[in-house]
């Protein structure tokens, strides 16, 4: 479509009372069958999709503002606006709305239907307009009462607005204000305050344009100085004329732009400082004031962006070495405010804005500014840099990579950011926290682009670890040369905690880059020095860093940890913490618990072989005893490779019986006659799902018979090994109850007919017993099983059934089954 008269932007008002752009399209009006009425339709100019479909309701109040805006509310908290490119298009749609509602197109607001009494409605219909009292000092009180009484009624408010607008009443009121101020008529000034405040609440654009004009706005602010609730008047005009100075850092040749900037500043001041805090009711009545400021800012940014000479001069002076520091300070503050104004732009306009700044050379300019000594200038430059990073981090990354081909590492933009983070003089490190967040955004792979020709992630991370990582880690390496941090004051600890937070993020999101850096620079050993810090938050940051590394379950990291005995500082911190139940205690126990639960075999063996003596007395948690048990299980598998190989074979032949099969087996157990069971046999009911595994069971039976001779029942299991490392502790682990029986000797159990589920019985082995039995003609032999390995329990149970199917089962059973 080429008709620009109907070209509009659709806006909605969000919860923060800010206008959100919903897209650009072309508006039309027509009858919509589904809505059963004449409606406004806006179709996107990009793809023709429907941006807006709104029925023109007879009872909805539409407002026409600034000749190119139509604003209305569709629900209690849902405001809409159409911003037209041309006035003619706005007038056409406005006439259509007024035609549907039966209104005169000359009005700038259509009227709500309100619940009023019949008498009030008759009075309003019978009186075509509202007659204002003469604008005289003696009638100010009457005028103030009239304004106050009209505000609650939308109809009266509309008539009052029309009367004030048509009679040029505002200028007459402001003339009276000057008279009252000269006469020091305090009572009259108080009435004028109420009148002007009431006119603000009329929420009408035409009145705002008069009140905010160059010749009227200061008198309007003067009226609002005399609040009757205050003992002394405010001095807003004195602040605006003497304290607040307009600094034109680059000459603005367009007088309309200059006037718009002055007007916006003053109206913003009125909204923020002069007008009293609005009530919930009054806040909705000031929506037009919010919109007036919003669209003014959009217009200012657009006019400045279109002025190429202005932006060229701005960046030329910013980067010119001859520019004085004070002048550069003003230029930076202007640029910061310029970027802040851009946040009111819609996404597509904001894209064009930042592309313009990029083409003008904003990043090289920021590099110069960040090298200055002025703290305030650097702070403003940091804010500008944050706008750029949040808008487009890829643009910043591309710039710093190109820059590295020409400049040394010391003057790279990203290294300047890191140095400012490290050298932040704020005791709370407020600036450092902000900069660390920006660095985190820049190194986050989630917002990096991948194209067919290049991968931004690979290129930028290679650049970062080559040119920047040594700058980031320098404070950490300098402070951890000994067994304790060389500087342990609060500010240094906070800085190191920030660096560790970023390094932990790198461990989580980067792969071989951070791995190579940690191993080659021995970073983890340096970080664990910080566990000796007097500041608990820093020690926890160090533990978190190691925990993230262990959580990767990467054997490269694991071998690095074992080779350098890096659990030693962790265990030392655990022991130094003593019996205190705090975050450090919990964090360290959780780390070891993770190693146990995830069964990281190399770390388990390393911990037990080197640090068991230090940990064996810890009994208030079972973590360390569980680690020892894991270690014993690993050793037993290593010492008996046949058993381990048989487990893998059985795993390939395993099956799982369902609940119905188990119930059938129980029923068969009870129904079989006791006298038909021969001594030394266990009854295993046949299953059509089983396959004979007799050949597989023979090696296990032979192995368990050797175990039976070697390990008598209830004997302690002693494990000795030649330990590598700094310690060579011998350790002893005893088992009691069913665990001892399953690990050291074949179980001896008696089974009564009335208790088929007794622990250790063959009948319960198919369901819940931790011990597994294999039956042969000569007796009952116990398999070694591990209580924490449910899959292996099922395998042994399944093979027991398979064995039973392989034998010829007798049709009877006896009441007692024993083995010796």
Automatic annotation (TrEMBL):
GO terms for cellular component: nucleoplasm; protein phosphatase 4 complex. Signal peptide: none annotated. Residues 671-681, 786-801 have a biased composition (Acidic residues). It comes from the Eukaryota. Residues 730-755 have a biased composition (Low complexity). Residues 143-633 form the Serine/threonine-protein phosphatase 4 regulatory subunit 3-like central domain. This is Serine/threonine-protein phosphatase 4 regulatory subunit 3.
């Amino acid at each position: 479509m080429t008709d620009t008269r109907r070209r509009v932007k659709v806006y909605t008002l969000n919860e923060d009372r800010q206008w959100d752009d919903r897209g650009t399209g072309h508006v039309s009006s027509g009858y919509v069958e589904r809505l059963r009425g004449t409606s406004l339709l806006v179709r996107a100019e990009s793809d023709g999709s429907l941006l807006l479909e709104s029925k023109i309701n007879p009872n909805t109040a539409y407002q026409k503002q600034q000749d190119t805006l139509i604003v209305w509310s569709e629900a209690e908290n849902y405001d809409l606006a159409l911003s037209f490119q041309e006035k003619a298009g706005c007038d056409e749609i406005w006439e259509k709305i007024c035609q549907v509602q039966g209104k005169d197109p000359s009005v700038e607001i259509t009227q709500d239907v309100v619940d009023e009494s019949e008498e009030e409605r008759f009075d309003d219909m019978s009186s075509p307009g509202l007659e204002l009292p003469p604008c005289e000092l003696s009638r100010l009180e009457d005028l103030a009462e009239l304004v106050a009484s009209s505000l609650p009624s939308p109809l009266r408010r509309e008539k009052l607005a029309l009367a004030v607008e048509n009679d040029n009443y505002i200028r007459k009121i402001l003339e009276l204000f000057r008279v009252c101020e000269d006469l020091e008529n305090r009572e009259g000034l108080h009435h004028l305050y109420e009148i002007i405040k009431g006119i603000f609440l009329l929420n009408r654009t035409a009145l705002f344009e008069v009140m905010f004009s160059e010749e009227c706005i200061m008198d309007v602010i003067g009226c609002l100085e005399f609040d009757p609730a205050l003992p002394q008047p405010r001095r807003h005009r004195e602040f605006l004329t003497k304290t607040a100075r307009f600094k034109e850092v680059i000459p603005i040749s367009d007088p309309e732009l200059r006037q718009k900037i002055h007007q916006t500043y003053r109206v913003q001041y009125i909204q923020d400082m002069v007008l009293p805090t609005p009530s919930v009711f009054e806040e909705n009545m000031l929506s037009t004031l919010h919109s007036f400021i919003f669209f003014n800012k959009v217009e200012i940014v657009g006019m400045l962006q279109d002025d190429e000479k202005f932006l060229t001069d701005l960046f030329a002076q910013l980067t010119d070495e001859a520019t004085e520091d004070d002048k550069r300070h003003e230029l930076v503050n202007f640029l910061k405010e310029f970027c802040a104004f851009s946040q009111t732009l819609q996404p597509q306009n904001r894209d064009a804005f930042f592309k313009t700044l990029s083409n003008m050379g904003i990043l090289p300019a920021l590099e110069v500014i960040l090298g200055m000594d002025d703290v305030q200038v650097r702070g403003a430059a940091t804010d500008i840099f944050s706008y750029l990073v949040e808008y487009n981090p890829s643009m910043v990354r591309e710039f710093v990579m190109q820059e590295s081909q020409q400049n040394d590492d010391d003057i790279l933009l990203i290294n300047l950011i890191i140095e400012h983070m490290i050298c932040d003089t704020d005791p709370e490190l407020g600036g450092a926290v902000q900069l660390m967040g920006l660095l985190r955004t820049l190194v986050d792979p989630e917002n990096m682009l991948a194209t067919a020709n290049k991968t931004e992630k690979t290129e930028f991370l290679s650049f970062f670890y080559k040119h920047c990582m040594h700058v980031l880690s320098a404070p950490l390496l300098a402070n951890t040369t000994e067994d304790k941090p060389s500087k342990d004051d609060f500010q240094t600890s906070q800085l190191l905690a920030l660096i560790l937070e970023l390094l932990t993020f790198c461990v989580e999101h980067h792969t071989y880059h951070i791995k190579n850096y940690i191993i080659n620079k021995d970073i983890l050993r340096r970080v664990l020095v910080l566990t000796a810090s007097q500041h608990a938050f820093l020690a926890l940051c160090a533990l978190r860093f190691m925990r993230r590394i262990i959580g990767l379950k990467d054997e490269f990291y694991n071998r690095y940890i074992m080779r350098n005995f890096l659990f030693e500082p962790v265990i030392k911190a655990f022991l130094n913490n003593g019996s205190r139940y705090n975050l450090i205690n919990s964090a360290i126990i959780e780390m070891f618990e993770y190693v146990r639960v995830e069964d990281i075999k190399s770390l388990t063996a390393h911990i037990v072989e080197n640090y068991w003596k230090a940990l064996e007395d810890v009994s208030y948690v079972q973590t360390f005893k569980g680690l020892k048990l894991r270690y014993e299980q690993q050793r037993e598998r290593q010492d008996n490779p046949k058993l381990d190989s048989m487990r893998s074979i059985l795993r390939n032949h395993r099956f799982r019986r369902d609940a119905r099969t188990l119930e059938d087996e129980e029923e068969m157990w009870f129904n079989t006659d006791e006298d038909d069971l021969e001594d030394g046999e266990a009854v295993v009911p046949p299953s059509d799902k089983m396959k004979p595994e007799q050949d597989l069971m023979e090696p296990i039976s032979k192995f368990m018979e050797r175990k039976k001779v070697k390990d008598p029942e209830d004997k302690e299991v002693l494990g000795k090994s030649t330990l590598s490392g700094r310690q060579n502790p011998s350790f002893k682990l005893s088992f009691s109850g069913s665990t001892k029986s399953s690990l050291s000797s074949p179980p001896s159990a008696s089974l009564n007919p009335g208790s088929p589920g007794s622990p250790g019985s063959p009948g319960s082995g198919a369901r819940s017993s931790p011990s597994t039995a294999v039956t042969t003609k000569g007796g009952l032999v116990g398999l070694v099983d591990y209580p924490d390995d449910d899959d292996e329990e099922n395998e042994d149970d399944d093979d027991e059934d398979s064995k039973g199917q392989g034998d010829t089962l007798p049709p009877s059973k006896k009441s007692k089954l024993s083995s010796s």
